[in-house]
Amino acid sequence: MKLLFIVNPISGGVDKEPFLKQAETLCKNYGLEYDIFKTTGVNDHEEALKVLHESKPTKVISVGGDGTTLFTSILLLGTGYPMGIIPLGSANGMATELFVNPSPIEAFKDIIMSDIVEGLDILKINNEFYTLHIGDVGINASIVDSYEKDENRGMTTYAKYFMEELKQLKPFPIKVVTNEETIETHVLMSAICNSRKYGTGVPLNIVGNPMDGKFEIVLIESINLSSLLKAGLSAFDDKFYDNQTSQVLSTSMAEFIFDTPRLLQLDGEVIGKFKNISIELLAGAVNLITTGKNKYIKNH
């Protein structure tokens, strides 16, 4: 077996070296070959692709947070290489969603041991961008910029910006066209969901499954602000879903049409402003190394 580690050294402000040393010790102990590629922020995709073709690994391992998982998934599209996830970011939302062991070294052992490889869906946005997790236009896209600039992370910080934004946000018009229907309404947020929860743990889509060949569009039309303020942080769990009025559409292709260009974020990264957003599902396009603990896999 040969492994290729794709490592983001700075994701989540988490030092990856302790894990890498442990992983290297295990590899040497069990006679596993390995290569390591570390992102630098300069031509990462092209450089990683060169290493991938030269290394020809049995398994590829994403070491970092949601951004690293997305980067590795895009890198592997169309290659057939299977990917495992080591959760070493700030939130690790996608790893949590996919039932990855929260202990990095235990997650690594699972990747080495497991022969279970299942298809993970990925979404292509405007024929250019990708998301594995959740993207949105509206309240959360506006929050992400402030959240990312704040030195403090976690639920308290997120909740602070959420409440501030909610107080001043007004519903905006949207037209949604899917294979099945067309809807015109006003929303506080229009979300593109390949899974259920943000990395912060805030639930958005209780029926999501990133391995079912569908994605959900969640149109949040109103949120009960007074209830949230009274409940405080305790509302930012599954009860949060009860404090919003929303429509949920399940589909494999959709388009958002707005009255004016609006801010889009994908997997915690602000992409830009768009008047039209097309969403295409690439069903099972990522070969995910997983375990029997993953409740989404077909044979579970």
Description of the structure:
This protein folds into 2 domains: 2-113, Probable inorganic polyphosphate/atp-NAD kinase, domain 1 (Rossmann fold, 3-Layer(aba) Sandwich), CATH 3.40.50; 129-282, Sandwich (Tumour Suppressor Smad4), CATH 2.60.200.40. By secondary structure, it is of the alpha+beta class. Helix 6 (139-149) crosses helix 7 (155-168). It has helices at 17-29, 44-55, 66-76, 93-97, 104-113, 139-149, 155-168, 225-231, and strands at 2-7, 33-38, 59-64, 83-87, 116-125, 129-131, 134-138, 172-178, 182-187, 189-193, 215-223, 244-251, 253-266, 269-290. The strands form 2 sheets. Strands 5, 6, 7, 8, 9, 10, 11, 12, 13 and 14 form a 10-stranded antiparallel sheet that branches. Strands 2-1-3-4 form a 4-stranded parallel sheet, with helices on both faces. Residues 226-236 have low confidence and may be disordered. It is globular and about 60 Å long. It has 8 helices and 14 strands. Helices cover 28% and strands 37% of the residues.
Shape by Cα distribution: globular
CATH architectural arrangement of the largest domain = Sandwich
What is the C-level CATH assignment of the largest domain? Mainly Beta
**Count of domains:** 2
CATH topology of the largest domain: Tumour Suppressor Smad4
Helical content, roughly? 25-40%
Mean pLDDT metric: 86
Spatial extent as radius of gyration: 19 Å
In N-to-C order, the SSE pattern is: EHEHEHEHHEEEHHEEEEHEEE
Q: Proportion of β residues?
A: 35-45%
Annotation, overall tally of beta strands: 14
For this structure, the quaternary state is single chain
Low confidence ranges = 226-236
Task: Enumerate how many helices there are, as a single number.
Answer: 8
- By helix and strand content, what is the structural category? alpha+beta
**Main β sheet profile:** 10 strands, antiparallel
Give the terminus-to-terminus CA distance. Answer: 26 Å
